[in-house]
Amino acid sequence: xxxxxxxxxxxxxxxxxxxxxxxxxxxxxxxxxxxxxxxxxxxxxxxxxxxxxxxxxxxxxxxxxxxxxxxxxxxxxxxxxxxxxxxxxxxxxxxxxxxxxxxxxxxxxxxxxxxxxxxxxxxxxxxxxxxxxxxxxxxxxxxxxxxxxxxxxxxxxxxxxxxxxxxxxxxxxxxxxxxxxxxxxxxxxxxxxxxxxxxxxxxxxxxxxxxxxxxxxxxxxxxxxxxxxxxxxxxxxxxxxxxxxxxxxxxxxxxxxxxxxxxxxxxxxxxxxxxxxxxxxxxxxxxxxxxxxxxxxxxxxxxxxxxxxxxxxxxxxxxxxxxxxxxxxxxxxxxxxxxxxxxxxxxxxxxxxxx
Length: 355
Prior knowledge:
Elements: E1 9-16, E2 23-30, E3 34-38, E4 40-41, E5 44-45, E6 51-54, E7 59-61, E8 73-77, E9 83-87, H1 91-105, H2 110-120, H3 131-138, E10 148-152, E11 155-162, H4 163-172, H5 179-191, E12 195-198, H6 200-208, E13 222-225, H7 227-234, H8 236-242, E14 249-259, E15 266-275, E16 279-283, E17 294-297, E18 302-305, E19 323-327, E20 333-337, H9 341-352
Antiparallel strand pairs: 1-2, 1-9, 2-3, 3-6, 4-5, 7-8, 8-9, 10-11, 11-13, 12-13, 14-15, 14-20, 15-16, 16-17, 18-19, 19-20
């Protein structure tokens, strides 16, 4: 059995395969000098790691823009030039992983780690404002950001805006108090795939700048709304299908293991808990499209922890523990595993508040 004493962090990430470039959920364990990853056998982590990433001489890219439909990816490049792409379930989780991995890589250089911490903590979006809300306001016909035709090096970019125009708009719309905060917020919008750089200046800054220099407060740097946002707006089917239940404020999200209804097999899913209206949706993190594979209203639901001694009734297969059950108003039973007792307690508490 692998020695994993001195664990710095552990949890699920979705990893791109080396040979077949498909995406699989893996359990990652960060040690001081390496990152181990494990397959799941049913609902249990296998005892030996599937692989390891040696951190000595590793470089980290976060955010990584190589995948348009996966904005929450971290790229690790080892000393031998092997590239690993790892996707997290939220911006906060991604940044937390990036920070801890960077800390392990630069363990002998505490100044660099301190600078990274300062940058990450310099601006926090108020909890009552979501990035979706800001983008909706940006699209407003009368008070939104003005889209114009801009030219750069002979190319015309229709419906684009400059970096300085977005900074001005964020300040005038009272989302931020300073240009520094506006640049940080604009970087978040870009990292979350709501906007994208177009043209040489903004694209180069995104690829080569450090965390504080990826978005340019500049009248020659051009940006547009990302295609994925346009597609989301123009898809009539998506609007009809989920407009109400996906409109709630996200309260909590994370990777959990869920038992299937028909085959009773265990799969890692990204769960998103929303309030007003209260819904719990789950997504297949290995798939590109960002639409739920299932979900239900929390009104009238019952949620409870299951005992860890023995396999509870209704649960099949090889399970690790930290189980909880949700029974919907329609008497559908969902069996879910968290990665720890603490995480299980947090999810149960968050769901109970909304039932």
